[in-house]
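Fill in residues.
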């Protein structure tokens, strides 16, 4: 069966293909007058632009920890814990690092690296510390709920 292309009379396409990069100017910018654009309240805008730390080195360590935690392997979870602890050492008020530290501690037992009874006090303590600093962190609340569901 012959291959058909746009412009070929035997082609199933009825319109020529336009350059995918070129699009009408109105598509590139949706101004405030566009009904599809939503406006954020001031608290909503603050949540989207919030910085959890001003320390760039702590942030880099946190991101390395997130990477290793995402790999979900025993040795990588241990690396993640180390990175989160280093980030907290640089910025003791880094609530997001505490929340992810709590998740990493829980991952230890999820992966069978340590018994849950030995790691769960650390899970709870890190989650509570994160919530104490920032009550809006979903990761901290989720980790604490997982702890309470499993052990309370």
């Amino acid at each position: 069966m012959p291959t058909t292309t746009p412009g070929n009379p035997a082609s199933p396409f009825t319109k020529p293909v336009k350059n995918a990069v070129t699009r009408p100017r109105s598509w590139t910018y949706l101004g405030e007058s566009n009904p599809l654009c939503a406006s954020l309240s001031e608290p909503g805008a603050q949540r989207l632009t919030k910085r959890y730390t001003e320390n760039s080195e702590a942030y880099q360590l946190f991101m390395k920890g997130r990477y290793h935690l995402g790999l979900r392997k025993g040795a990588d979870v241990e690396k993640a814990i180390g990175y989160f602890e280093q980030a907290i050492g640089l910025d003791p008020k880094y609530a997001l690092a505490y929340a992810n530290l709590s998740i990493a501690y829980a991952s230890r037992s999820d992966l069978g690296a340590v018994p849950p009874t030995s790691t769960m006090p650390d899970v709870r303590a890190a989650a509570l510390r994160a919530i104490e600093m920032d009550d809006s962190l979903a990761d901290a609340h989720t980790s604490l709920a997982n702890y309470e569901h499993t052990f309370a």
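The mean pLDDT is 82.
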